[in-house]
Amino acid sequence: MLATIAPRTDRWLVDIVDATDAALCGGKAVGLAKLKRIGLSVPRAICLTTDFYRHWLDVSGFGRRLAELVASAAAADVRRKVLEQIRCEVEATPLSEDAEAALREGVGRLTLERDGDGDVLSVRSSGVDEDHLDASHAGVHASRIVRGHDMRAVIAAIKTCWASLWTETAWTYRERLGIPHASAAMAVVVQRYVAAVCSGVAFSADPLTNDRTTVVIEAGWGSAAALGSGRLTPDEYRVSLNGNAPAAARRRPGRQTEMTVWRDGRSVDLPLDDAQRGRPVLNDTQVRDLAGIAKTVERTLGTPVDIEWVCDADGVWAVQARPITTLTEAPHASTLWTRANLKEVFPELPSPLALSYLTLTLNRMFRTYHAAHGYSVAPDSSLVSVIHGRPYLNLSLMQQMTVERGGDPAIVGRLFGGASPTEPRSPAPASHHAIPTSGRVRLAREMVTTFLGTPYRGRQLFRAMRRQAAARADISLEALDDRALSAHASEFFATLMDETTLGRLHEVVSAQSRAYMTLEALLTAWMPTDADGLLKRLMTGLGTLPNVRMTYRLMDLAALAVQDTRARAYFTGDLDEDALRGYETALGGAAVLAGLRAFLREFGHRGPYESDVMSARFADDPGPVLRLIQLHVRAGATQDAARHAAERCHVRRGAMADVRGALHQGCGHLAFMTQWALFRIMCSALHRLLALRDECRHVTTMMVAHLRRVALEIGRRASRDRVLADATDVFFLTFDEMPRVLVERDGAWRLLAADRRRQRARDAQLEAPDVVSDDGTAGDAERAANAPGDDELLGYGVSSGIATGRVRVLRSAEGIGHLSGEIVVIPAIEPTLTPIFPLVRGFIAEMGGLLSHAAILAREYGLPAVVSVRDATRRLRDGDRVELDGSTGRIRVLERAAELAAGWGQCDRSADRSSVIPPGSVCRYR
Fold first, then answer.
1. Hey, how many other C-beta atoms are within 10 angstroms of the C-beta on 720?
2. pTM (predicted TM-score)
3. Of 258, 313, 384, 913, which residue is least crowded by CB atoms under 10 Å?
4. Residue percentage of the chain with pLDDT more than 90
């Protein structure tokens, strides 16, 4: 033992009820003290304070050594080794005699008159920066369970808690929060262990919606170890409150096959008893009691909290309380958020990896572009936020930028979707907001760039990106060692984050809206009676769009299949999983197989919901391609791609002739030539920009496809080495975390991925509205304007023409089966689903605008289309006969399907998509 240097003080050990100083006792101990003081059942405990920790540092002389090691860990390349050395030295450095004596005395008070498994103690870290509003540190620091009579084990557990200050996870966490490493200190709670029959967490407010009238309780059998690690899906109880009193409770059953218990001196996992399987973990009384406890603690602490609890034969015990750090302050009032555009290209619940790169890239793209053109964006504003696991665009911010350019903010919803139309009307000239001379000069410069420079720069950018994609495709990721693969991922991410590239991309994707608005204003001034119809006809027959090429290729493949007996039999049969896996054998020697291989070489990087890195590509799974070919084969493959393209070009040329004729009437030759030349320049630019927007989707998806290759290789290695539980866990890391998982081999990665899987499962239980507002005003007007049961629906007409037919409601691409001239109703048209367009009579979408991907492609096929139709998939049913007008945006129900007519009023409206997300539920990925 070392000789005592510093005198013992009364601040070394304190009873848990007196642990009120966070700097001395840490956040966990202070939380327990508050619970104890308000009369809750808290297991008896003592706290070894930070004075005890610093005394040990001083007496042992390790404090000076620790400071030197921490300073040397600043360099990232040696940090892992240095931190490992610190942990080893912490665990090897002994306590002084008087410190150990004080510890024995305190532990003796806890284990007095307890024997057998009754002397078990829980030794828990209590960091000074833990369990407060800015950071919970949940899962970062260590806890151990030991026998109280084994003092060597107790001391070892305490040192393990101290050592957990110096893991890579804890180091990174402090850096993210700006906490100096030199100030890191650790108190330790030594507490009687409760042999839990069941355990869990109670949230005093819904952590997803910030709804303080709902308590959410998660419960599982046994101790909380399995719950925290994500090895089980807990029972969830949602308790509605009447004032402060618990009222109705709803249970969502969990899934649990084993439970963690303390047996024979160790923690073990045992199979769940048959009597417990499927049985509610908590009874009604326990649910009400826990809800009441949660609200009591919330009122006492003045903030929503989550409480860790355990239940044994004696009742319910509170073992930890902390603020719910995931609740955020409400963003600026009156901000509107929309899923427009993003809902078309991302699945309902994108992966955390996809959400992280989406928010990073789009927010940086937006800021870079507008700063380069002299526009100011508030420092705390974001173009993209994540609500209930879904990405939203800041509609208010986009409208603000339109106003700064002198435009009408209402045009944003009409072009991209995200705001319900009121009455269909021809576009009126945009209201010109007063802007200063400098603003007009800036706007003129931007417009010249849009019409003359952007098409050229866009083509240059995409050529360069194609070259980069081809070079990366040749890289053998399997041949790289772990550090080289991590370095490659980091380098690739840096390329994606390049501000020049992001600025160019934003220029391309936003330029067609400026070109459209300018051309619309000119045509409205020159020929106000038909400007809207002319514009829709002018935006067709572009032919070079990658998605159009993809559809024409599939049409040609279907025609080849029809001409071959074996191929026709394959595609007219049932394409189950076995048939899809054996397609090469079934089609061997057929011309369609060679064509399919060529198709996959060009479009293999595409796939359903391809913007999400977690979504499979056509090259990974050709099943969606085979099913699309099947749809055309079953329809007879009567469409001729070349003739179809020629017909659409004829429509565009006809619109050009109509504009020329209208300009010629009543104009002198000079005026006509001036207007015609200006029109030709702007119309040609709009065509090129629309084509570039579709090309942008095709090329940027090459980047996502390579990111998927990298992620899967990292996930494979990490799961092999048990850093991750499963290879697909890599999709539950963020953009900046993924390259580090093979270098920083910390057990926290498994826990992190499991937590995010659980969060995603919670988000899946909630249905996100298409448009939300921060102040709770959005949605009500839309519900009133689009009441279910009406026989007339209203949206934006984006592709001219009138279609009459039976409705086919599709909520996703799966299970289409066959199509034969129906009017398709769908939440949003995902771009790789557009090959169905030649097989249908028209389409109705709940989301979209004039320049959304689906609208651009509908015009290419001459398909009447109406978008931004709220709740269309609920208000229309399979078999309803409707008339849709792609010019005015009106949809009339001509006849209800007979079998549904009687029960129309009984439809489920419990999850109204026009509902409002409460303030505070918007989160931002930085």
1. 10
2. 0.63
3. 313
4. 18
